[in-house]
Amino acid sequence: MSDNEWDENDANTVVMDGDDLGIAGDSDDAEERSSFSFHSVTMMSPTTHGEGMNRYTTYAVSAIDSATSNFSTVHRRYSDFQWLYGRLQAERPGAIVPLIPHTRAISVGSRVAAELVSTRRGHLVRFMERIIRHPECADAPALTVFLLGTDEIFASARKRSAVETTADAAAASDAPEKSVQAKASASVLHLMAKVKVKISTATGAAKLDDISDDEDFEAIVKYQHDLAARVRKLTQDAQTLVRGSRERARALRELADTLSALGRGEGADLGRGGANCERADLGGDVGGDPDAAFIPAAMDVSASLVSLHGASDALAIVEEAEFHEPLKELADDTAALAVALERRRERQVAFTARRATQQAKRNALARTRADPKPKMEERVARVQAELTLSDKRAEGAGKDLDAASRRMLREVPRFRAEVREKILAVVAAYTRLQIGYGGNAAPQWVAMLQVLEGARPAAPLQAPPEVPPEPEAEVDTTATELES
Fold first, then answer.
1. How far is 41 from 39, CA to CA, in rounded Å?
2. Distance from C-alpha of 234 to C-alpha of 412, rounded to nearest angstrom
3. Are 173 and 391 in contact (CB under 8 A)?
4. Hey, is 212 helix, strand or coil?
C-alpha cells in the first residue's frame, strides 16, 4: 500500500532493503545514522479496512525529504507508530522520546469510533512533528524506514527488530560457532544476571557499579520527580479553571432561563400574552405602571445572559485546547524523561551484570589454573575463551552505557529550556484568553446594568433629615474670677 513518488532510479538505490535504510541493528563502532532528514510530515484522513474483528485503521503518512524535496506517502497502522516509538528508544537510549498516544480500544460499531480515530490522528500528527525535529531522533534509521519503506521493507524491518529484541544480540553475534541452544542458554543466563542485579539493588543488598557521572544523574532524577509533581498540580489547576468556565456557562444559561420564566410569568399575571409571549409583546409603554417595567428588563437581561453563556462555553472549549491540553502534554513529557532515565538505568544494570559475569569468569579461570588435575589445559583454554568473550561483552555494555549517559546529558538542558518555554507560553495564552473574554463581555454586563437600573422604580424624594442645633460653647469663667 505504499505510494512513493520518488524517481524510479532513486527508488532502486534508496529503497531497496532494510540495510539501505539503516535498519541493520546498532553498529559496534559507531551509531547508525540515516542520511535522510525530513522537512515535514503530514497525515491524511484515516481509512478503515475490513469488518468485524478484522477491522483496522490505516493512516496515510506523507514526508518531504529536506535535502531533495522528494515526496513519499506510506500507510501505517497505529501499531506501526508504537513500533517506531519502541525502536527510537532502542536506537537512541537516553533520548527523551515524546510519548506515543496511549492505546484506547475503539469498539466496532461505536457511535464515537470515528471521533476517537480522528482524535488519535491528531495525537499521532503531533508525535511525528516532534520526532522529525528531535535533535537525537531525527536521523534514526527506524524513522527513515517508517517514512520511506515499502510495505515489504517495513514488515521485514519489524520482523528483524523483533528477533533482536527476543534474543540477546551480543550472544548471537559474539559467538557464531555456538549452537542455537547454547545461544539461548547464554541469553537466559544474562537475563537472570540482570534480574539478580535489579533485585539486589532494589533490596539494598548491592548497588550498581559506580559511574563518573552518577551525581549528575541523581540530580536529574530529583529534578524529574519534583517537576512531575509540580506539573501534575499545574494540570489539575488548569482542569479546575476549565471546569469553572464550563460551570459558569451552564449557570449563566440557567440564570437566563430563570429570568425569562419570571418575565413570562409576570406577563401572564398582567395579561400580556401569557406564558408564550415574546419580548416584543412585553415592551412598549407601560402606562405609568412601574411593576410592568420588570417584564421587558427581565427578557432583555435573559437574552444578554444567553449570549454570555455562549461566549463562556466557547471560552471553555478554547481553554481546553490552548491551556489544559498543552499542560497534559507537558505532563507526558515529564513521564518521557522518567522513561529515558529508566532506559539509561537499564544500560547501567546490564553493565553491572556484565561486570559481575566478567568477575565470575576471572574467578573460574583462577580456580581452573590452580586445579592440579591432569588434562586441565583444555579446560583452561575454554575458560580463558569465555573470559575473553565476557571481557568483550562488558566493554560493549560499558560503551552502551556511556553513549546513553552522554546523550541524556545533552538532552536534559534542552528539555529544561523547553519546559520553561512551554509553561510561559501556556500561561500567556490563558492570560490572553481571559483578556479577550473580559473585553468582549464587559460591554454586555454594562448594558445589562443599565437595563436593570432603568427598570427600577425611582425612589421618592425625601426631605433632608433635620440637623439638631449645636450646643452653645460653655465659657470658662474660672480664670476671670481669679484675675478679679
1. 7
2. 21
3. no
4. coil
Pull the grid cell for residue 107: 469498539
List phi, psi (to 5°) of 406: -65, -40
Grid coordinates representing 399 are 560503551
For residue 294, what pLDDT is reported? 83
SS3 118: helix
Q: Which residues, 6+ apart, have CB-to-CB distance to 364 below 8 Å? A: 383, 386, 387
Judge contact between 301 and 390, C-beta under 8 A: no
Of all residues in the chain, the percent with pLDDT exceeding 70 is: 69
- In the block, which residue shows the cell 566493554? 395
Task: Quote the DSSP letter at residue 322.
Answer: I
Q: H/E element holding 68?
A: none
Question: How long is the chain?
Answer: 484
Where on the phi/psi map is residue 102: left (φ > 0), alpha (ψ -120 to 50), or beta? Answer: beta
Q: What are phi and psi of 93, to 5 degrees?
A: -60, 135
Bridge-based pairing state of the strands 38-43 and 71-77: unpaired
Residue with cell 540515516: 34
Q: What b-and-e string marks burial along 363-392, b requiring 16 or more CB atoms within 10 Å of the CB?
A: ebbeebeeeeeeeeeeeeeebeebbebbee
Instruction: Extract the runs of DSSP E, i.e. beta strands, from 257-392.
Output: none
Cell numbers representing residue 468 in the block: 439638631
pTM of the predicted structure, to 2 decimals? 0.74
Taking residue 311's Cβ as centre, other Cβ atoms within 10 Å add up to 17
What per-residue confidence (pLDDT) applies to 417? 97
**Residue 75: strand, helix, or coil:** strand
Return the HEC string of 122-173.
Answer: HHHHHHHHHHHCCCCCCCCHHHHHHHHCCHHHHHHHHHHHHHHHHCCHHHHH
Other C-beta atoms lying within 10 Å of the C-beta of residue 178: 15
* Exposure class string for 147-157: b at 16+ Cβ within 10 A, else e: bbbbeebbebb
Task: Give 306's contacts (C-beta < 8 A, 6+ positions apart).
Answer: 252, 253, 256
How far is Cα 324 from Cα 318, in angstroms, rounded to an integer?
9
pLDDT tens string 303-330: 999 999 999 999 999 999 999 999 999 9
Please state, in angstroms and rounded to a whole number, the distance separating the CA atoms of residues 151 and 157: 10
